[in-house]
Amino acid sequence: MESQLHTGPSICKQLADRPFLQIADSRRKRLPHTSHRHRARMFTRASLVGMVLLAGPATGADVAKVGTCLLANCQVALAKCIGDGECLENLVCLQLCNGRPDETECQIRCGDLYADKAVEAFTACAVSDKKCVPQRVDETSYPVPPDCALDKSFDLNNFQGRWYITAGLNPLFDTFDCQVHYFGVPEPGKLYGKINWRIPKGNSDFIERSTVQTFDQKLNVSPAYLRNDGNEYLNYTDDWYILASKPDEYVVIYYRGNNDAWKGYGGATVYTRASTLPQEYIPEISAAVEKAGLKWSQFKQTDNSCKPHPPQESLVEEVEEELQKEVQREVKRVEYALENDLSSFGKGFTVLEQGLLSELQKDEQGLVQELQKEEQEVAATVSAELQQARSFVERIEKEYTLPPYLRWLYKLGFPMPNM
């Protein structure tokens, strides 16, 4: 169902006084991949460890409920996760977040740092397919903005080409470095975007991330309302609301979204043609966000200088922060537990029902076969529209690698060398 906009100037005034969500931050290294058989064996000896890692320091009943669900429904995904260095570190990282005052922020940070196909498959099974992990619901932090706060004169065709996010509201999603995005309008009311950003690793280095998204302009609601839905991973839906725009200068977007893990996340971003926020536009941008109940003082300007990776020799261990070191210690404890069939694991967690391990060991050969079968299949199925969108926006991205005098020829369809 499409989001409905609130109407009435009184809501604008009420929203202007409401505080919005504030947030905070976590780190990493990599473990080697293992053979299918070894991964299956690790799974049969460590399934309960994985259960406890995911469930965290909840009540015994909660741990049992989550663990029973995972072991009954997500055996293959959990086996692949435990046998995959990055996915295992993600589980450990999540466990280290438990009980912290910034627990949610820490968990999202883990997701930023550890993202591969094994992580996605395990998360999809645990959260979306079998709903072993309950959804977080927050309907109040990022409500639908009032109609009076929207830019009803917004023209989608003006939002094409290269744009930079130069300021953002939510530190969890909006303020990464090197946010260079490319947009195109393949047909009226349709927007394709390639979204690039960097995840800091805490040692002056970074991880590059990129995704392609598609949006529909809901003109029956407002020209300032765009929706991205129909996404397979976590079944997420994002609603974008244009608060203000100036052709070829800036676009201010407030967004709210839902997925199987979190209902009600959100934030706001300022897109500009320039890689840094032009200071002369801050007064009008500030006025626009305040109409939607946001405070400009809570926005942070981003760094789009897009520096190269530092020299390898400069990435010394002493600059690794506390969570990075703790992750490594916990990984060692996990490995020791796996090798010794310990009944006790980490931070006071107790693995019960040892008999379950014997039952799981009976399925070891079946797990090996399932792992091999899955890896022979296509890793991910991408919709035809998403493939079309990727090709469309990557062509736009390539335009910006050309000097201006060649760019217009490329746009007209003339072939360019090495492209």
UniProtKB/TrEMBL annotation:
SUPFAM superfamilies named in the record: Lipocalins (SSF50814)
UniProt superkingdom: Eukaryota
PROSITE patterns the record matches: LIPOCALIN (PS00213)
PANTHER family reported in the protein's UniProt record: VIOLAXANTHIN DE-EPOXIDASE, CHLOROPLASTIC, VIOLAXANTHIN DE-EPOXIDASE, CHLOROPLASTIC-RELATED
Domain VDE lipocalin residues, every copy: 67-304
Organism: Coccomyxa subellipsoidea
Name of the featured protein: VDE lipocalin domain-containing protein
